[in-house]
Design goal:
about 250 residues, Cu_polyphenol_OxRdtase_sf, CNF1/YfiH-like putative cysteine hydrolases, transferase, about 20% helix, six-stranded mixed β-sheet, 6 helices, globular
C-alpha cells in the first residue's frame, strides 16, 4: 500500500485502552484530506455514496495503511438496515448484513455510518468481538441484543463484555414521524419539546445492553451529535447525497 499511507484522526474508545487484547477505532471526517478523484471532502469510506468506487477504495487503503491493517484481513458489512448478524472468519464483504462477529485474532470488523450508531462489543478475556450498524430500524429490530446473544454463544461472558456506542444523531436532532416514534418505548421518545417526536437512540441502545445484563460501567457512549458537528462528522441528514461515511473498526490482536 506504500504511498497511500496518511495520518488520520480517530476516536479510540476509552474503555478499550486498558484491554491489551483488542484494538478499535472510529474514524473522524478528516476534512483536510481528499482523494484526487473524490468530490466528497474528507475521508469518505462508504461505497454507498455518490463518490466513485475507485476513490472509496483509495480512501480505505489509505486508512488501513495508517493503522497497519492488512487489506485482506478486513470483513465489511454490506449494510441494509437489517438485524442480520454473521459470525465471520475471513476478510471480504458480507452481503445484506448489519452485524459482524469474530473470534479470529487479526481479523478486523468494519461498519460504516453517517448518522446511525456504530456499536462495538468485545470480550477481551474470551476473545470475541462484534461490530453492529444500529440506526433506528436496526435498533427497533434488536440487532444489538441479537448480536450480544450470538457473541455469548461464541464464548463471550456478560460480566466482562464491554461496549462502545459511537457518535450519532442526538435526541435534539433526531426528528421522526409518528409511525417511527411508535416503534420505540415511550420513555425514549420526546413528544413534548418539539413540533414532531424526537428519538433518543443512544439511550435506547444503552437500555438494550442493560436489559441483556451489562452494567453501566461496561458501556461507553460518545455524546457528540453527527448533525451538529460538521467539522468532525458526516451526516446524511445534513448533507444528503453529498454525505460521506465514517467507519468503526475492531479486531482482536494476533
Amino acid at each position: 500500500m506504500g504511498n497511500l499511507k496518511s495520518d488520520f484522526s480517530f476516536i479510540i474508545p476509552e474503555v478499550i485502552k486498558k484491554d491489551d487484547a483488542v484494538e478499535a477505532w472510529f474514524t473522524l471526517k478528516n476534512s483536510a484530506y481528499q482523494a484526487p478523484d473524490s468530490h466528497i471532502k474528507g475521508l469518505n469510506l462508504g461505497f454507498n455514496t455518490s463518490d466513485d468506487e475507485s476513490a472509496i477504495l483509495k480512501n480505505r487503503l489509505a486508512l488501513l495503511a495508517s493503522l497497519n491493517i492488512d487489506e485482506e484481513w478486513v470483513a465489511y458489512a454490506d449494510q441494509v438496515h437489517s438485524n442480520r448478524v454473521q459470525v465471520v472468519n475471513e476478510g471480504g464483504t458480507y452481503s445484506a448484513t448489519d452485524g459482524l462477529i469474530t473470534t479470529l485474532p487479526g481479523l478486523t470488523l468494519a461498519i460504516q455510518v453517517a448518522d446511525c450508531a456504530a456499536v462495538l462489543l468485545w470480550d477481551p478475556i474470551n476473545y470475541v468481538v462484534g461490530a453492529f450498524h444500529a440506526g433506528w430500524r436496526g435498533a427497533v429490530a434488536k440487532i444489538v441484543p441479537k448480536g450480544l446473544q450470538i457473541m455469548r454463544r461464541e464464548g463471550a461472558e456478560i460480566q466482562v463484555l464491554k461496549a462502545f456506542i459511537s457518535p450519532c444523531l442526538a435526541l435534539e436532532n433526531f426528528e421522526v414521524g409518528t409511525e417511527v416514534a411508535e416503534q420505540f418505548p415511550t420513555e425514549f421518545v420526546d413528544y413534548n419539546q418539539f413540533s414532531k417526536p424526537h428519538v433518543d437512540l443512544k439511550r435506547f441502545l444503552v437500555h438494550q445492553l442493560r436489559e441483556e445484563g451489562m452494567g453501566t460501567a461496561q458501556i461507553e457512549v460518545r455524546e457528540e451529535c453527527t448533525i451538529e458537528d460538521e467539522d468532525h462528522f458526516y451526516s446524511y441528514r445534513r448533507e444528503g447525497d453529498n454525505s460521506g461515511r465514517m467507519m468503526a473498526l475492531i479486531r482482536l490482536k494476533r
